[in-house]
Amino acid sequence: MPLPYVLLSAAVSLDGYLDDTGPERLLLSSPADFDRVDETRASADAVLIGAGTLRADNPRLLVNSPERRAARVGAGRPEYPLKVTVTASGDLDPAACFWHTGGEKLVYTTDEGAERARRLGVAADVVPLGPGLDWRALLEHLHDVRGVRRLMVEGGGTVHTQLLQQGLADELQLVLAPLLVGDPKAPRLFGPGAYQAGRLRLTETRRIEDVVLMRYEPTAPGTGRSVTAADRHWTRIACELAALCPPSETAFSVGAVVVAEDGTELARGHSREGGDPVVHAEEAALAKIGPADPRLPSATVYSSLEPCARRASRPAPCARLILSAGVRRVVTAWREPDTFVAAADGTGLLSAEGVDVVLLTEYEESAMAPNRHLLTGE
């Protein structure tokens, strides 16, 4: 199921704290960075915080710039992003600023929490998610029911931790402030847990007055049939590689990337790479990795098109090459049509050998784009 783009936003001290333990909120961002945050909010369809942050900070979560609000309205969007909070207990203060400023509000909670929130009379739509909080169900509901394509998450530490642990964050925007808190009782950005994000990829650093903005994206693949933000990233890369293929009237344009469990890119390739008119994308990528590389069994192969199960140009189809390499997980964007091979079923061949095959149909259009001329009726 498609999910919103999830952007985690936070500011921390040099020693990793979100706040101190004093009665007033510790301001970590600079004035210019607060304006950047306002701009980021204005770009989002929804802004989300946990109930703990709502209680501790009593935020309004508004777009403060009149010009940015006017631009949203001029683009046919609501003046303010949808404001979302998440609570297991439903224990919310109906007098909080959150409910009485800005536009629409939404509460995600448990079945029990929903009853409590409604009894308290919070001024928001309340959506129960069942006996427990389910982040994937929450994101699916935001995307499918509320039309949210870009979600900004502003805290707190528990929310950020859970989204990273479950591989549901697409980006982390972290501001580092020149302050030291030094109090072990103060709240930290991330709590303990078995993170699946692996080594994050740094995409930008920017000095903003006396703070530094660092932007990261996760790289580690999912496990089994679970899908992470990194899976979406690498599938998108595979589709971009497909667009690099020399055009052909007799073969598909396909891109592929092989990624280790820790998020390290092992190799990439695309159809007809290097002037070879018959080389396939997965074949080109795997040929660049030593067959004894110990990272292969836990790696993931990302391909814009389902790996082939039969081919005339080489002795072994790509599905067999993947099996021979020992790879146990494949993510693809598009099932192979019958254009060149009838009843193509690389997924079936791989699955029969115990490989987890994940289909990310949200990238099907991107995978098909460089192949339109080959498809019947296109």
Strand-helix topology:
Layout: E1 5-12, H1 31-43, E2 46-50, H2 51-57, H3 66-74, E3 82-87, H4 97-100, E4 105-109, H5 111-120, E5 125-128, H6 135-144, E6 150-153, H7 157-165, E7 171-176, E8 201-208, E9 211-217, H8 229-242, E10 255-259, E11 265-270, H9 281-286, E12 300-303, H10 318-325, E13 329-332, H11 346-352, E14 356-359, H12 364-368
Parallel strand pairs: 1-6, 1-7, 2-3, 2-6, 3-4, 4-5, 12-13, 13-14
Antiparallel strand pairs: 7-9, 8-9, 10-11, 10-12
Bin the helical content: 25-40%
Main sheet attributes: strand count, strand direction, barrel closure: 9 strands, mixed
Model regions low in confidence, pLDDT < 50 over at least 5 residues: none
Outline type: elongated
Order of helices and strands: EHEHHEHEHEHEHEEEHEEHEHEHEH
Which structural class is indicated by helix and strand composition? Answer: alpha/beta
In short:
The chain is of the alpha/beta class. The chain has helices at 31-43, 51-57, 66-74, 97-100, 111-120, 135-144, 157-165, 229-242, 281-286, 318-325, 346-352, 364-368, and strands spanning 5-12, 46-50, 82-87, 105-109, 125-128, 150-153, 171-176, 201-208, 211-217, 255-259, 265-270, 300-303, 329-332, 356-359. 27% of the residues lie in helices and 20% in strands.
Which terms would index this structure?
378 residues, alpha/beta, five-stranded mixed β-sheet, 12 helices, 14 strands
